[in-house]
Design goal:
Structural class: alpha/beta
CATH class of the largest domain: Alpha Beta
Helix content: 40-55%
Strand order of the largest sheet: 9-8-7-6-10-11-12
CATH superfamily of the largest domain: Leucine Dehydrogenase, chain A, domain 1
Distance between the termini: 29 Å
Strand content: 15-25%
Largest sheet: 7 strands, mixed
Number of strands: 12
Oligomer: single chain
CATH architecture of the largest domain: 3-Layer(aba) Sandwich
Number of helices: 16
Shape: globular
């Protein structure tokens, strides 16, 4: 164990520890590709700051519960920290740090004037009433005030958080600072400074990457087959968009199980079924299959759009596809990546493929600072152009270095970070 990381690891889950060390391995690999300055790599090996706080909340029954919350700034050489806040029982210091590091690289690849941040509370939000959830959010915000602000740290929604939660967070920041601070949070309701086009932006960015991958490889998008793991905030809109683009969505998996149809699932009908039943299983427009069987469905594209480390080396051996496009954060293990390399399966990495969300967040932040709202068309055009620019930079770097898209993406990110860190200097 690296002594520098000991204080972060603590009681972290094995998955978080694994993810952190895989992140370090990817960083060191990128450093070797571009001959990065050793002192720059040392800076990026550790988070800039980690803030942990006890979050006491008065519950509806009058009892006091104390939760633990974190906010991490990994690196802010390119601008304010940017990253979501998640409410989940698996949140811990190291997981949050790894996710913040991912945001550092993602914003760099996307040419955004942000650094990497992430936050969360270890909590099962389904066990809280709406009033308890609001009190938890507001107390977390107060405890994290030293970290927050439009020029310091700009949170956004993540797992189990939404525009309502962001509205509470923004209101609390504004009240504490005694001034309007709409630019302190993105992913807000439209009525208080949110942006058109933010909902579904991550999915739109993934679609752009799928289209670019097909174009680069000379494949026909129309009629091609895609399997999507996840039917939530990203996987759901993505399924609709790819279905509308002419692709056959041949398999969908969620927490309840999976369904498949070689001829293509009727996505609008599946969406209605999920609204009524709470999950994809039992959909009469397809065959219900197990989670393990989902990974064996023959297709052209597999899109992991759920939680981290969903694809291990065993699953990688089973996949029958041409390309994997990572809509989730960190869905593929390092061992799985090696299998994909051996099998000739291309991977569009998460820090590129799912950057549509943070790009739309940037547009919202810009609108808030300008005091001028963009049209949905302006947001869509800007998102498309930004994703094309990022994809092209990574694709070109992969060709120049003769490496995978993942290695190329980190090389692009590290080059940009090295420039910004070097330009700022150290004192």
């Amino acid at each position: 164990m690296d002594k520098e990381a000991e204080h972060l690891i603590g009681n972290s889950s094995p998955g978080a520890v694994k993810r952190w060390y895989e992140m370090l391995n990817i960083l060191h690999d990128a450093a070797s590709l571009i001959n990065a300055k050793p002192w720059v790599v040392k800076i990026l090996e550790m988070p800039q700051r980690v803030f942990e706080a006890a979050i006491p909340v008065r519950m509806d029954d009058g009892e006091i519960e104390v939760f633990t919350g974190w906010r991490v700034h990994h690196n802010t050489s390119r601008g304010p920290a940017k990253g979501g806040i998640r409410f989940h029982m698996e949140v811990d210091a190291l997981e949050t740090t790894a996710l913040a590091a991912g945001m550092t690289y993602k914003t760099a690849i996307s040419h955004l004037p942000f650094g990497g941040g992430k936050g969360g509370i270890r909590v099962d939000p389904t066990r809280l009433s709406l009033a308890e959830l609001e009190r938890l959010t507001r107390r977390y915000t107060i405890e994290m005030m030293p970290m927050l602000g439009p020029d310091r740290d700009v949170p956004a929604p993540d797992i189990n958080t939404d525009d309502r939660v962001m509205g509470w967070l923004m209101d609390t920041v504004s009240m504490m600072k005694m001034q309007e601070t709409s630019g302190s949070v993105t992913g807000k309701p439209l009525s208080i400074g949110g942006s058109l086009g933010h909902v579904g932006a991550t999915a739109n960015g993934v679609v752009t990457c799928v289209r670019q991958a097909f174009e680069q490889n000379g494949w026909d998008l129309n009629g091609s087959r895609v399997s999507i793991q996840g039917f939530g905030k990203v996987g759901g809109p993505l399924a609709y968009l790819l279905h509308s683009a002419g692709m056959r969505v041949v398999a969908i998996a969620d927490v309840t199980g999976a369904v498949t149809n070689p001829g293509g699932l009727d996505i609008p009908a599946l969406g209605e079924h999920v609204k009524e039943s709470g999950g994809v299983i039992g959909f009469d427009g397809g065959e219900t299959i197990s989670a393990s069987e989902f990974w064996q469905v023959s297709c052209d594209v597999v899109v992991p759009a759920a939680l981290a480390l969903a694809v291990d080396e065993n699953i990688a051996e089973k996949l029958d596809c041409k390309i994997v496009v990572e809509a989730a954060n960190g869905p593929t293990s390092e061992a799985a990546d090696a299998v994909f390399m051996d099998r000739g399966i291309s991977v569009v990495p998460d820090i590129l493929a799912n950057a549509g969300g943070v790009t739309a967040s940037y547009f919202e932040w810009v609108q808030n600072r300008q005091g001028y709202a963009w049209s949905a068309g302006q947001v869509a055009t800007g998102l498309h152009d930004q994703m094309i620019k990022a994809y092209s930079a990574v694709h070109d770097k992969a060709d120049i270095l003769n490496v995978s898209m993942r290695r190329a993406a980190m090389a692009v990110a590290l080059e940009m970070l090295q420039d910004s860190i070097t330009a700022r200097g150290i004192y």
